[in-house]
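[Q] Does anyone have a clean structure-token version of this?
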Amino acid sequence: MRGAGAGRTPIRAASAYGVLLIATLASLYLVSQILRNSIGVIAPVLVAEVGLSAAQLGFLSSVFFISFALAQIPLGMGIDRFGPKLCMLVCAGILIVGVLLFASATTPAGLIGARFLMGLGSSCYLMAPLAFYARRFHPDRFSTLAGIQIGLGTIGTMIATAPLALSAAAVGWRATFLMVTGAIGLAGLLVAVVLPGEQRGEGDPEVSRQTLRESLGGIVLAARTPWVMRLFLMQLTSHAGFVMVVGLWGGPYLTHVYGYGLAERGELLFLTATGQTAGLFLAGPLERLMGSVKLPVILGAGLTAGMLLLLAAAGTLPLAALMLWLVMFGVVSAYTPILITHGTALFPRKLLGRGITLLNIGAMAGIFASQAITGAIIQLFPISADGAYPLLAYRVVFALQAAVMLLALLPYFRAPDPLWGEK
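[A] Here you go.
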């Protein structure tokens, strides 16, 4: 069900033009990943400067993901009807506005509203490129391309750790976010120049003739696709554990429990982002090696949950063991591209954009729920005189996230594996 657009010659990923396209598509995703995961490192600074509570901090981080999720249905319709390029350019404009407002906000409400816009603006930079790959490149390269897209994008997660901490210390977090707007503008210019233009309904001419009601009906058809709900449940937890550590509670945990400052927590979280980047580049080869899309997902999700349970049980680790845990946690949580590959195999071409964005709603909604709920849970624990939350609070939220991941695995075991010829 995947392949190049009808009547088009598939692009070779190894060609010079293919490499330029992939780099261009990854550029805005990289910037969006910086923004997605930026709260973890600067969280203590925001708490001190703006007066955020733990619940407000959790909501500030998570509101990015609820707006991201809300955008997925219109985004899927837009990808199928107008093509990926126009969607990416419109989102770039929204993203620039959101970042500018965030850099100038002085109240919790201002920060939250700006981050809501940042989530809307970032909403297309994985799904639109994946739809482009599915239409324009050889179908047997999809997992590898998805892994490269997410892997290059995760360099943004790495930047959101130690480099962001260094920049915030040197010029302040507000000036740092202002500089990010320049990167967004440059990446948007690359998209405008490098990506080929689309015609309406590029993936399937039938889509361009659909009414709004018929386009919305396609979402219902995608939701009714056999087995899609089992993958939706997996998507709810697929990225929530990693983002909970790198994008939100990892920074406060390292400060409150170990006493690390801005630079040290940035350097330690950099290890996790680096580990996931390495794991993402291995995703495609691992799928081909195992001859399955289902087994690598089960292995990755199970190990991710296991490592969270290990940290919850131990509470603290010696520095060397902590560093190893941070690296390996990033590596084992890098199964997302293979789960996306599993999802794309479910949908016919004319529903591809709406289908994959429907599944992505699960991923974003899962992160939102995880961060909002864990923020409320941590808020229940007493605060020390210096504003720190106790170790027990972090152990509880790590264990809770692991339990949810293991529960989501249960229905996924029965989902068919397309590489095994199952339907």
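[Q] Thanks! Anything notable?
[A] The two ends are 13 Å apart (CA to CA).
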